[in-house]
Specification:
Structural class: mainly alpha
Radius of gyration: 21 Å
Number of helices: 14
Largest sheet: none
Shape: globular
Number of strands: 0
Strand content: under 5%
């Protein structure tokens, strides 16, 4: 039982690293968005910033996914965080030296986007090799909680801090988040012997992965990638609505997004309950559909709609995101998981560029209500295209994964008499 401690410690460190990296990336992006909307007050101004971030990742992610399958994933993760630290420090130094805010914002976020194109497949591949198959669903719930909480909390930190202290001090402190992530991953240690790791995790047999037919994998990628489109475009729409249209200030924007963070945290706990009774495919499709409905409804009632709708939408989106990530990860083996997530990230962000143009154009010629409606319509088409036809074999596979998770949970309960898992 004592041997099971190191893998669990590695899982906690990986979740902490993911939270810190997501917080750092998105604080940088949110600060840029707030500065852009203050200067130009249009959805397209914010949209161009998000396009500058999405474009390089869309082009480079498939290639970087192959690199993640060829080189040590832990070293790649640490290298990404170290590079991000230097890039994050570059923007406040540029501003302190009198540089124009516009080029500095776009340049810093462009550099971070290139690093993120390698980070996502490398981090996903590291998780695949370090987390036992029987614990994958539980870990993905925690990992997505950490990642999305970092993304959502970034709006709160960014909005309140920019209003209280200005952008430069926040950007300097933000660089430290990447160093925290690098230290966490360094503490994970080298890859353990696979046989010893399986024994420590209490696994009896490997869990069969989902069928790997090209069409089926593409459906998994589409289902997972459309979540990235929704998050990115939503993060451009929300400051446009709260600050640009309702004129409520950065602090109000931060409060709304903080409630969204709480909704996603609640989704993590709900997923652990729902996944015991339902396969991941069903959870993903239903969750994304309910989130799409929320996008339309929340924008009809002003600030009250966002205060209620954002956390509720995050609650449904969070469960769908965790389920779709688990399905995609289960469909690839250790040697190809980086490529799968690289394609998902690249495809999702390529779609984000087109959807951002569409939604920004609709919004700037009408208002954000129609922008949210356009986003919901695109997401609805993607969900329906990816979900229902994937059917039976996937549900059987996720049921096997669920059974393995329950076996792992039983082992955890037995170990509880000796030690308590954090």
């Amino acid at each position: 039982m004592i041997l099971s401690h190191p893998p669990r410690r590695a899982e906690r460190l990986l979740v902490s690293a993911a939270f810190a990296t997501a917080l750092g990336n998105n604080v940088q992006l949110i600060v840029g968005a707030l500065l852009a909307i203050r200067e130009q007050r249009t959805m397209m101004a914010v949209g161009w910033l998000f396009i500058a971030v999405a474009g390089p990742q869309a082009l480079l992610s498939p290639f970087f996914g192959r690199l993640a399958d060829r080189f040590d994933r832990r070293t790649l993760w640490i290298g990404c965080d170290a590079t991000s630290t230097l890039l994050a420090l570059g923007l406040p130094l540029w501003l302190a030296c009198g540089g124009a805010p516009g080029p500095g914002i776009y340049g810093a976020n462009l550099g971070l986007a290139v690093v993120s194109a390698l980070f996502l497949p490398a981090s996903s591949a590291l998780i695949k090799e370090r987390v036992p198959a029987g614990r994958l669903r539980r870990f993905n719930a925690r990992y997505e909680m950490g990642t999305q909480a970092g993304m959502l909390l970034s709006a709160t930190v960014g909005g309140l801090s920019v209003q209280a202290f200005g952008a430069a001090p926040l950007l300097v402190l933000n660089a430290g988040t990447f160093m925290v992530s690098a230290l966490c991953v360094a503490a994970v240690g080298r890859r353990p012997d696979p046989a010893a790791a399986a024994t420590a995790a209490g696994e009896q047999a490997p869990v069969p992965a989902a069928p790997r037919g090209p069409l089926r994998v593409r459906r998994f990628i589409l289902l997972y990638a459309q979540g990235s489109v929704v998050v990115t475009v939503f993060n451009a729409l929300l400051p446009t609505a709260v600050i640009g249209e309702l004129h409520l200030g950065a602090a109000a924007f931060g409060v709304v997004d903080a409630l969204g963070c709480l909704g996603f945290l609640a989704a993590t706990g709900a997923y652990r309950i729902v996944s015991r009774r339902h396969p991941d495919l069903r959870i993903a499709v239903v969750g994304f559909l309910l989130c799409n409905a929320g996008l339309v409804l929340q924008s009809q009632f002003g600030i009250a709609g966002y205060l209620v709708g954002v956390p509720l939408g995050a609650f449904f989106f969070g469960q769908a995101r965790i389920a779709s990530r688990t399905m995609l990860m289960a469909s690839a083996d250790d040697a190809s998981v980086g490529r799968a997530f690289g394609l998902a990230n690249g495809g999702g962000l390529a779609a984000t560029v087109g959807v951002m143009f569409l939604v920004a154009t609709v919004t700037d010629h009408s208002d954000t209500r129609y922008g949210f409606g356009a986003l919901a319509a695109v997401a609805l088409l993607a969900t329906l295209s990816a979900g229902p036809a994937s059917g039976g074999p996937v549900e059987a596979s996720t049921a096997r994964t669920s059974a393995a998770s329950r076996r792992s949970g039983s082992a955890d309960s037995s170990a509880g008499a000796i030690r308590t898992e954090a």
